[in-house]
Specification:
Elements lengths: L4 H56 L6 E6 L6 E6 L2 E5 L13 E5 L3 E5 L1 E3 L2 E5 L5 E8 L2 E6 H15 L8 H10 L2 E3 L2 E3 L2 H18 L1 E11 L8 E8 L9 E7 L2 E11 L1
Parallel strand pairs: 5-9
Antiparallel strand pairs: 1-8, 2-3, 2-7, 3-4, 6-7, 8-9, 10-11, 12-13, 12-15, 14-15
Length: 270
């Protein structure tokens, strides 16, 4: 077989040119991606700074007992977190953790203590901006500034409606809860209660849900009064109609027949 040396010599430079072109294009793609990332981060940081300035402006004019609403539109996928008593930060999702914020964060210090009444991740008190816009209410009571999400305030309102819900002319939902708790006994690690009382309670919870058209999550924590052994307390779900555990719960305690019961309640409009 006779090789064509002239064709080979012409082909090699073309292959090298193609190889170099692929390298250059790959480098440009990586550079463009990094520049885009820098641009996005810079834009998010500026948006966080602007939003925090708006929040600070509203807080500065609050007087005792005042409440103001603010609509937060971003940065999307960031978090609002209290890093100490008088500091609040916007943290990007990559630097957010239970100890504070990382490099890409914007913070502001205030002369009053902050309270964030919202659970955004595990047990952390913070706001997730995964879904925006988010409505937040800011109130000043005493020397404390309280942040609440619209979902949390609605949940508090629905808990009050739940307890006050009339089941007949003389009883409310809270009375049914108490009657149910009175039938309960702790047997070892478990709780046993009268099924008929539970069924009656369930029926009126169904009516409550039908009337208000909400997602509901209710848990009951129980144990022996004054006893803290692991087997002496437990938890069960009374009702769950949607995964809304991120909504901060309201709670109320009951001591009945030497047992304690804590009703923890979260609700959200469908």
């Amino acid at each position: 077989m006779i090789k064509n040396k002239k064709a080979d010599s012409l082909l090699m430079p073309e292959v090298m040119k193609l190889f170099l072109a692929v390298i250059v294009i790959g480098f440009l793609v990586i550079l463009a991606y990094k520049l885009y990332g820098i641009f996005i981060i810079k834009g998010s940081v500026e948006q966080a700074r602007t939003t925090l300035e708006q929040i600070k402006g509203k807080i500065d004019v609050l007087e005792e007992g005042d409440k103001v609403e603010i609509l937060i539109v971003g940065p999307k996928d960031w978090y609002i977190q209290k890093t100490d008593k008088k500091t609040i930060c916007f943290c990007d999702k990559d630097s957010f953790n239970d100890k504070g914020c990382g490099e890409n964060s914007i913070c502001a210090n205030f002369d009053k203590e902050f309270i964030i009444e919202n659970i955004c991740q595990a047990s952390l008190k913070c706001f997730s901006l995964a879904e925006v816009p988010k409505e937040i209410s800011i109130s000043l009571i005493g020397d404390k500034i309280t942040f609440r999400s619209k979902d949390y305030q609605e949940s508090v309102d629905y808990f009050n409606k739940f307890l006050e819900y009339k089941v007949d002319d003389t009883k409310k939902m809270e009375n049914l809860l108490e009657e149910y708790f009175k039938t309960c006994q702790i047997n070892g690690p478990s709780l046993s209660c009268e099924p008929e009382k539970k069924l009656k309670l369930d029926n009126f919870i169904d009516k409550f849900l039908e009337e208000y058209n909400i997602y509901l999550f209710i848990t009951i924590h129980y144990g022996v009064v004054g006893e803290f052994a692991p087997l002496a307390k437990g938890i069960f779900i009374l009702r769950e109609t949607g995964d809304i555990r991120e909504v901060k719960f309201s709670e109320k305690n009951y001591n009945i027949n030497n047992l304690y019961f804590t009703v923890k309640f979260s609700a959200k409009i469908k």
